[in-house]
Specification:
By secondary structure, the chain is of the alpha+beta class. It has one domain. The chain is built from 3 helices and 5 strands; from the N terminus they run E-E-H-H-E-H-E-E. The chain has a 5-stranded antiparallel β-sheet with strand order 3-1-2-4-5. Helix 1 crosses helix 2. The longest helix is centred in the middle third of the chain and has 8 residues. It is globular, with a radius of gyration of 12 Å. The N and C termini lie far apart (27 Å). The model has no long low-confidence stretch (mean pLDDT 95).
């Protein structure tokens, strides 16, 4: 089985900017989960090794987790 990697990037919502992470077996699978193109993935997302980001994403591989970019609060699973 392929090793999981955690990818992180900045997303935007009604309440502002968010740090968003996802665990997947490849960059293309992560792009599919995030509903973005591989071009966007390569341009604005990167593999992350931050322990808090990895912990959140690995708690449920394939799920999307976000938290406010200002660093306050913890990662929350995105529904839908």
């Amino acid at each position: 089985m392929a090793k999981l990697k955690v990818y992180g990037g900045i997303t935007y919502g009604a309440e502002g900017q968010f740090r968003t992470v996802v665990a997947a077996t490849s960059k293309s699978k992560a792009a599919s989960i995030l509903n973005i193109t591989i071009y966007q993935m390569n341009s604005w997302w990167t593999e992350t090794f931050n322990k808090y980001e990895v912990e959140a994403a690995m708690s449920e591989p394939g799920a999307i987790f976000s938290k406010p970019l200002d660093g306050r609060g913890s990662f929350v699973k995105q529904e839908g």
